[in-house]
Design brief:
The structure holds 2 protein chains of 2 kinds. By secondary structure, chain A is mainly beta. Chain A has one domain: Rieske [2Fe-2S] iron-sulphur domain (Rieske Iron-sulfur Protein), CATH 2.102.10.10. Chain A has a 4-stranded antiparallel sheet with strand order 5-6-7-8. Chain A is globular. The relative contact order of chain A is 0.23. Chain B is of the alpha/beta class. Chain B has 2 domains: 97 residues, Elongation Factor Tu (Ef-tu), domain 3; 135 residues, Nucleotide-binding domain of ferredoxin-NADP reductase (FNR) module (Rossmann fold). Chain B is 18% helix and 32% strand. Chain B contains 5 helices and 12 strands. In chain B, the strands form 2 sheets. In chain B, strands 4-3-6-1-2-5 form a 6-stranded antiparallel sheet, with no helix packed on it. In chain B, strands 10-9-8-7-11-12 form a 6-stranded parallel sheet, with helices on both faces. The chains are: A mainly beta, B alpha/beta. The interface between A and B is medium-sized, with 19 and 24 residues.
Chain lengths: 122, 271
């Protein structure tokens, strides 16, 4: 159980997200304003879109612009489209002395099965 | 639009359902059609039509994919016409250097028979939807918006609801469908506004080159839409089409600033 420094709390403006690499593991940090921070893996739980480019923050809600799937960044719960039943995985995080720390013992990864019924997109 | 080349035997995964198709008349099908009415609209945008071998029914906002003899792969183009059963589909295409179809297309191609598959796409509108509309389009992305707005007008939607169209082009020379848009504004009797946003012009005064009833603005179309629509986002369905950076900017504006629910935002990503 290791708390590791991710960035300074002032590195990201409220309502924004940005990628950081911590001991070789890439994470996305979202500044939720009064609700603190959320730290999560860099790929979309739905179809692995890179969230540093496709992720849009609005309050507590993360939207991936590829298919407009949405998650609550505090709880990880999917919201919005019904077909989205994947949770947003998160690293536990806290702010201490102006620094954002996250408990990163290993990389959180999504299992994307090859035979799942993915959306068919042109 | 994903396109690939198989280098060997491959297994093809066919989805078990077709999203958004509520009746068999709208299922995509293989068709053929002859090119007609090919003409330039601006320095780099052409219009063309396809006369199909049999009528199709589609929802406004949908597209088909076209295969041209001698060119690899299918290309996706949104219909300009309002939804109805029809044997003629109208399109616009931006001429791009190295763009296989747009470079191939010329007046002398009229009569060429193409393979057509469709209709496709989920960024559609149906008359029973009781919401105001906002359309944000860049360049040839206006095609599907013309279909939606024409259909909304013909079904009396603007008697009960508003429609606001934002059409982004670079300069005054790049505007097309101005007369058609002006006619729609006029026919909608106050229920429809059209704003042309010039990304490379500095003047924000009403533009004499744009027919009456159409507003002109300076800036990127999604930013213009965000400014002009401030405070008027309630009960809206938003349609977005255009170059990928514009689509991305519009989605960010609609979600982060306008706070529209994802279920009220419709677009088809072609990249």
């Amino acid at each position: 159980m290791t708390w590791k420094r991710v960035c300074s709390a002032g590195d990201i403006e409220p309502g924004r997200l940005a990628p950081f690499v911590v001991d070789g593991i890439t994470v996305i940090v979202a500044n939720l304003g009064d609700d603190g921070f959320s730290v999560f893996p860099p790929s979309c739980p739905h179809m692995e879109e890179p969230l540093d480019q496709s992720g849009i923050c609005a309050g507590l809600i993360l939207t991936c612009s590829k298919h407009l799937h949405q998650w609550n960044m505090r709880t990880g719960e999917p919201t919005g489209p019904e077909e989205n039943d994947r949770e947003l995985l998160r690293y536990e995080s806290r702010v201490e002395g102006g620094e954002l720390l996250a408990r990163i013992d290993g990389e959180l990864v999504y299992e994307h099965e090859d035979d799942e019924d993915d959306d068919f997109e042109w | 639009m994903c396109q690939g080349v198989a280098l060997g035997d491959c297994e093809v995964l066919v989805p078990s359902r077709i999203d958004g198709v509520s009746d068999t008349a709208r299922e995509p099908q293989y068709l053929t059609g002859d090119l007609s009415e090919i003409r330039p609209l601006t320095r780099d945008v052409d219009t063309f039509s396809i006369d199909l071998d049999r009528p199709v029914t589609f929802d406004s906002g949908q597209f088909v994919v076209l295969a041209v003899p001698g060119l690899n792969g299918y290309r996706a183009y949104s219909m300009v016409n309002g939804a109805a059963e029809t044997s003629r589909l109208d399109f616009v295409v931006k001429r791009t250097p190295g763009g296989g179809f747009s470079e191939w297309l010329g007046v002398d191609r009229a009569g060429t028979t193409l393979d057509v598959f469709g209709p496709l796409g989920r960024a559609t509108w149906r008359p029973e939807e009781e919401k105001d509309l906002v359309c944000i389009a860049g360049g040839s992305g206006i095609a599907g918006m013309m279909s939606i707005v024409s259909h909304a007008l013909s079904s009396g939607h603007f008697e009960r609801h508003r429609g606001d169209v934002f059409f982004g082009v670079r300069t005054r020379e790049d505007v097309f469908f101005a007369d058609e848009l002006a006619r729609l504004v006029d026919a909608a009797g106050g229920g429809l506004s059209v704003t042309v946003a010039y990304s490379e012009e500095s003047s924000t005064v009403r533009d004499p080159d744009v027919p009456g009833g159409i507003r002109a603005a300076h800036g990127f179309v999604h930013l213009v839409a965000g400014e002009r629509m401030a405070g008027a986002w309630g009960n809206r369905t938003a349609f977005v089409a255009g170059p990928p950076p514009m689509v991305d900017g519009a989605l960010r504006m609609l979600i982060a600033e306008a706070r529209l629910p994802a279920s009220d935002i419709r677009y088809d990503k072609f990249t």
